[in-house]
Amino acid sequence: MASIAQGSRISAARLNWLVILIGLSVLLNYVDRGAIGIAAPLMKAELDLSATGFGTAVSAFFWVYAPLCLFVGWLCDRFCVYRMFAAGIALWAVATLLTGFVHGIAALIVLRLILGLGESIAFPGSSKIFAAEVPAARRGYANAMVAAALAFGPAVGTFSGGLILAELGWRPIFWIFGAVTLLWLVPWHYVAAPLRTQSVSVPVADPVPLATIMRVPAVWLMGVGHFCTNYGFYFLLTWLPLYLVKSRDFSITDMTILTTLGFAVQGVMALVVGHVSDKWVAGGADEARVRRRMMIAGQALAAVSIGAVFFADGFAQVGACLVLAGIASALTSTNLFAIGQMFAGPRAAGVWIGLQNAVGNAAGIIGPVLTGLMIDRLGGYGWAFALTALVPALGALWWWKVVPPIKQFES
Q1: Which member of 90, 173, 176, 410 has the lowest number of beta carbons within 10 Å of its beta carbon?
Q2: What CDD domains does the record tag this protein with (predicted)?
Q3: Nearest 5°: phi and psi at 190?
Q4: What's the angle, vertex CA 37, arms to CA 31 and CA 41, rounded to 5?
Q5: Average per-residue pLDDT for the chain
Q6: Smallest Cα–Cα separation from 363: which of 336, 338, 341, 345?
Q7: Which of 331, 291, 304, 333 is nearest to 393 (CA)?
């Protein structure tokens, strides 16, 4: 079977469009995933949710999303990832749209589960394509597109969702976001059309078995590092709007500006980090060393900036802390999947990133519920912020001392 990894059946222009559309899909992924956090200041009261109940609804997304990343990664190594992308996005778009009609926690949890099912394609699928197509000197650019989209998604979602929330209420947030996501399928249909045949599918002829990858210690160690990275990011994505409005008495407009600021900075800096890392690698720097050092710096900065948000006084200080948090997330998100792709190589990229992402997204299962319990049982956000700052601090040590030398594993 011929493969686009051979480079004979796909043009540079088409590959660029694929990278752009994959980046846009990740942006929409985080717009739709984070909509519940934007809606929270009004949704939580209308549906009569406790902090624990809200945290459970947020966590439900990850009950399906995290374990399915492993299975979807396995599928990406064996079947046409272009069709899988379209199916996954159609499913999560419909789940987002229908969330605007819920009237209780049971329906909300069911739709969050379906959302997680659809969104599980994003990172294993994109990493499969990047590992097969993108050379080392351009790996930072491709992953920076995803990392920037990962940040601009919450920025766009927060800004537009905040405006919708203030003018129309929380339900139209989900109706509008879901409808816009469905429109992504139109350009994807045309760009991926020549690639949806067996002769030019992404899978290679000899995929690495899942059992082989599961015996590689590095993938589990990467998963723990991924967990430490995700814990703080998901806290900011889902709890920050509610915290700023209900505990710090910011208006919905101020909350929208502050939250958008942090994610917008992350998006811009992700592109900068991707460009700089590619330039260093092209200039002869050791790629593994560059990316490891960026991960350590990003985790350390995340610990400091997230902890500082709790003690910040007023709009300007909170904004400054969120800018630093955005820079930290840019450093980690740009390099996290690139390092996984380096470990895996083209043959195993789908299943490796799927397993790594499954372990890493356990943070989304544990974190929201634990945060809700701490708020309800301990009477405030203090302990929740302390734990959320501690996890990336431990992550910095993990990337420095525990993650093994970064090189492609031997199957």
Answers
A1: 410
A2: MFS_ExuT_GudP_like
A3: -80, -40
A4: 135
A5: 84
A6: 336
A7: 304
For 156, how many CA atoms within 13 A lie in the half-sphere containing its CB? 21
Amino acid at 118: G
Options 3.90.230.10, 3.40.50.1970, 1.20.1250.20, 3.30.200.20; CATH for 4-401 is 1.20.1250.20
**What's the token pair of residue 324?**
């630093």
Amino acid at 238: T
Tokens representing residue 398 in the block? 């993990």
Please report which residue ranges of 1-102 form alpha helices under DSSP H: 12-33, 35-46, 51-76, 81-99
Q: At what angle do helices 81-99 and 185-192 cross, to 10 degrees?
A: 180
Summarised one tens digit per residue, pLDDT across range 273-282 is 888 887 888 7
**Tokens 């406790």 found at:** 50
Q: To 10 degrees, what angle do helices 12-33 and 185-192 make?
A: 150
Distance CA 216, CA 225 (A): 15
Dihedral of alpha carbons 255, 319, 260, 87, sign: negative
- 321 in Cβ contact with 190 (< 8 Å): no
Residue 242 is encoded by which pair of tokens? 């509610």
Torsions phi, psi for 373 (to 5 deg): -65, -40
Rounded Cα–Cα distance for residues 207 and 85 (Å) = 19
Q: State pLDDT tens for residues 204-259.
A: 546 677 788 889 999 999 999 999 999 998 898 888 888 998 889 898 889 889 98
Distance separating alpha carbons of residues 287 and 278, to the nearest angstrom:
9
Specify the DSSP class assigned to residue 251: -
Q: What are the structure tokens assigned to 21, written together?
A: 């559309």
Axis crossing angle, helix 122-133 with helix 136-168, rounded to the nearest 10: 150
Residue with tokens 């995933």: 33
379 — alpha (psi -120 to 50), left (phi > 0) or beta? left
Dig out the tokens for 351 from the structure.
Answer: 């299943």
Domain extent listing, the chain: 4-401
Q: Average pLDDT for residues 108-130, to the nearest whole number?
A: 83
CA distance linking residue 89 with residue 27, whole number of Å: 12
